[in-house]
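Long-time lurker, first post. I've been practising inverse folding by hand and with some scripts of my own, and I keep getting stuck on stretches where the structure tokens seem ambiguous. Below is the full token string for one chain I'm working on. Before anyone asks, I'm not after the true native sequence, just a reasonable design that respects the backbone. If someone could post their per-position residues I'd love to compare against what I wrote down in my notebook.
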């Protein structure tokens, strides 16, 4: 998945990179990797520190057609380039300079990294870090809730209450929803 951010005015590559480094330090999920344990089960690992650099491309001397072609090819290659969940960070950042005052950030991320709604929160933090970084400062932010607290909360959710909610919510529906182009499955099930 890719989120694109257009930026106007001079953009400092080092400040962009530093802003993301602050975010990586702040959020466990941005330092998440996976491995397989001895029982062949996936195991999530949160590293204390990670190496991080952004990919920088200066297209300011190119024609509009060359810029569009580059961005199209970059997007396609980026979609094809998978994330190695054991070796790679679960996101990549590219900063593309399109003109003297026009930039684009291409923020590629694996779906295991975060729910899409969280990206807005991360983007706001990026802006805060970037703006503060222009003056050599770091924004004063409330500490994030540790990821492990979220996992513990998920474990506490009572499945019975969830089942009750959905049964109540779906009360009155008498037939399953059909999906066009059903494929016959095993035991008469269809997908």
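-- Answer (accepted) --
I ran through it position by position. Result:
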């Amino acid at each position: 998945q890719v989120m694109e951010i257009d930026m106007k005015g001079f953009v400092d590559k080092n400040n962009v990179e530093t802003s993301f480094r602050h975010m990586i330090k702040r959020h466990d999920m941005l330092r998440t990797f996976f491995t397989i344990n001895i029982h062949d089960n996936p195991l999530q690992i949160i590293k204390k520190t990670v190496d991080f650099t952004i990919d920088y491309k200066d297209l300011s001397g190119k024609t509009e057609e060359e810029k569009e072609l580059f961005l199209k090819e970059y997007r396609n290659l980026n979609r094809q380039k998978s994330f190695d969940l054991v070796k790679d960070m679960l996101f990549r950042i590219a900063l593309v300079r399109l003109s003297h005052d026009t930039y684009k950030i291409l923020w590629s991320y694996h779906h295991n990294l975060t729910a899409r709604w969280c990206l807005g929160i991360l983007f706001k933090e990026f802006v805060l870090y970037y703006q503060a970084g222009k003056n050599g400062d770091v924004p004063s932010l409330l500490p994030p809730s540790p990821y492990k607290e979220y996992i513990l909360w998920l474990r506490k959710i009572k499945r019975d209450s969830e089942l009750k909610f959905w049964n109540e919510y779906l009360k009155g529906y008498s037939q399953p929803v059909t999906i066009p182009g059903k494929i016959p499955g095993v035991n008469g099930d269809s997908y």
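A couple of notes from the structure itself: The CA atoms of residues 146 and 170 lie 34 Å apart. The first strand starts at residue 2 and ends at 8. Happy to go over any region you disagree with.
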